[in-house]
Amino acid sequence: MIEFSRFILENGLKVLVQEDFSTPVVAINVLYDVGSKDESPELTGLAHLFEHLMFGGSKNIKDFDTPIQQAGGECNAFTNSDITNFYITLPVENIEIAFWLESDRMKSLSFSKKSLKTQQKVVIEEFKETTLNEPYGDMWHHLSEMSYKTHPYRWPTIGLEIDHISKVTVEDIKNFFYHHYCPNNAILVVSGPVKELQIKELCEKWFSDIPMGEIPKRAFLFDKKEKEERKEIKAPVPSNAIYMAFNMPERLHPDYYTYDLISDILSNGRSARLFQKLVKENHLFSYIDAYLYGSIDPGIFIIEGRLLDEVSLEEAERAIWEELEKLKTTPIEENELQKLQNQVESTLIFSETGVQNKATNLAYFELVGDANLINTEAKLYQEVTIENIQKVANQTFRKENLSVLTYLKNSDKKI
Amino acid sequence: MPPIKEITHISLDQPLTYVLDNGIKIYLINTGQHEACKIEFHFATGRTDEHKRLVAKSTLRLIKDGTRQYNSSQLAEKIDFYGAALNLNAQLDASSIVLTALNKHLENLIPILAEIIWDPIFPQSELEVYKKNNQERLKLELIKNDVIAYRKFTELIFGENHPYGYNSFPETYDQIFREDILKHHLERFGTSNCTIFISGKIADSEIKLINKYFGQNKKIVKLQSLIYNGEINFSPQKLNIITEDTVQTSIKLGIKCFNRSHSDYYGMFVLNTIIGGYFGSRLMLNIREDKGYTYNIYSSLDTMKYDGYFYISTDTSHDLVEKTKAEIYKEIKKLQEKPIDAEEQSMVKNYLLGNFLTMIDGPYNTIDVVKTFISEDLEISHFNQLIEYIKTFNVADIQALANKYLNKSQLWEITVGGKNKK
User: Fold this and answer.
1) Residue B288 contacts A, CB cutoff 8 Å
2) Which domain holds residue B373?
3) CATH code that applies to domain A5-207
4) Please, which residues 305-364 of chain A have a Cβ atom closer than 8 Å to chain B?
5) Is B373 in the same domain as B415?
6) pTM for the whole thing?
7) pLDDT tens-digit profile of B379-419?
């Protein structure tokens, strides 16, 4: 059980405090409700580039990292299609440094041309490193485009192409900042050896004078997947690979936890079905995994595998389908359900360690609906039934609901 | 700006120790908040005393794949059923089997684990699957410039026949046979070279349980390190490997150093931090944050039981390679010519002390620090000495180390990449 308290400043900033006196370290997590889904299709990758700029100096502070390091802390951030999330961990004695820094960059960035220019180069190198230079690194580009036609999930967070990143101007940056980086679009979570009252005072002192912003209403069109789509890429990869993406409902859908357990049945642990059947028994794959891309809006359920040399892509796909058909036609045994429940119980307990983990999770759950999900999730998993697993498998694992991406190695390069 | 307070006290929790009936030692950090634990069975055996390449790693990886009583999938099923995780960490000097579990399941898990560790049968069919899948995994790694460069670096500084230096290839796996694995397990996994590290929150009854399953047998093994006694002395080279179909080149620059007990270790630890060990480092600030040549640049001081090395690593577009290298050498030269100023010194000090505070936050982290020292035959008090050094180090000593170890003529330089993607 993770206990926390919650208050809202007049400018709309939501604050959660989670007291944990077992540690000398405090985590301050600031989540902004903005992700790559809020970009325009002509300027993709902007949300992630913006995350980099948040470290490039704000109105009154030249450089973000130096004071944190002076205070014995560390900071980092990540962006995905839904959120941009920043966190600092530091010795609790120096907690006010974090408030000073986070409030200043929420007030206003310095919008320096130099910082934009440098970070554009850095992000372009990141694009090259993670997408172009990495075998199978462009799979998100293809899967997003195949699974979504209208929703902005159709482009990946890193951006559609390098050109989009290089054409961002200071004007674009300002515009993005004033529309999304406002207190009423943020959730601040503090986890560590602190008292609620102390955090209230710090929040009043540093954040209360930041004005509310006007946040554009989202009006996404949701796709209804109606037909199977397939794409084959010839690339200099070492082995053939298959990615199967099935469309699935949004994060708050009651079936979400059923989907999560289905991915566990297929690939959580070495006893999971895909590994036992397709790797160990039938020697078709050298690696296989199933997981959900757990986005807030309707997401995708992915199965990916790398094939052994002598196996054809058709054979590999057929074998995966056989396992999916089993889930559709045969209810899982009580014993297997019990295993899933035991695994979930363990995972949830171990995820409660570490202040930074807790702060980030609380912020995310608060955004999704209610931070207390962190405590009620265990029960939601327990409520998943054998019948529902079968029902969801039948709804989901259909050809019309599928996008298949395959990589075919185009040479037998000697290494 | 709010005032910054110095971090004054960092104290590593002293582990509790137990000795099982057969002499196996347990180190325990028992400060957890949940009824859960991590139990690591640590065997002092690895590449340093294997009789054939890759045998140490393969033995460890296959240890979970069959005992007299259960086959591989039955074992996997049992561990997963109790919501536990079993990790096998093959390091250069050690082989570790790590169980993470809720306490309430230990009664069921510990007997299985004892069987896995003491009675594995290494079925031929499992070995075949293992070999094939690892060959595939290796093929994927071997097309990455970064991996090629790192492998070349360690091979060059130690030599291609040294346990720390040799590289494995898909063909290396073809040479591993079941007899090799059985022999390695028989001769290298004993009670005499086993130490148990536990963290979390456990009771005496659980120690008793472990004693029942791990404290009764006795198996003395003789270990023979294959590490060369003499100094390795190769003269550094500059090497450029051309690969196709990539858009970035990987750069590694470095030098062979020493293990943690060397008199220059603390100083190099600090020097490494200044050069490329944290976000505010010289390389990061100049080459990423000012020039934008790369997404990531860092340096690392890696130590093993008998040796160690320092290296700088980055990936950058092919056309920026020369500029990036020039800036790296420029940063090294600056550190050789001028001691760091008081402001940078205090930043490095505070950053490191804060970092240590996180490093020993919670039982699962603390035990890893304890294990690092114990497994390298060092006193845990080394940790406090390192902290003392960081608090009081002399900038002239750091400058002297930059001059002693980081001259251009001493550094190996590996670049891998070159041809643009079509």
Assistant:
1) yes
2) 238-420
3) 3.30.830.10
4) 306, 308-309, 335, 338-339, 342-347, 349-350, 352-355
5) yes
6) 0.95
7) 999 999 999 999 999 999 999 999 999 999 999 999 999 86
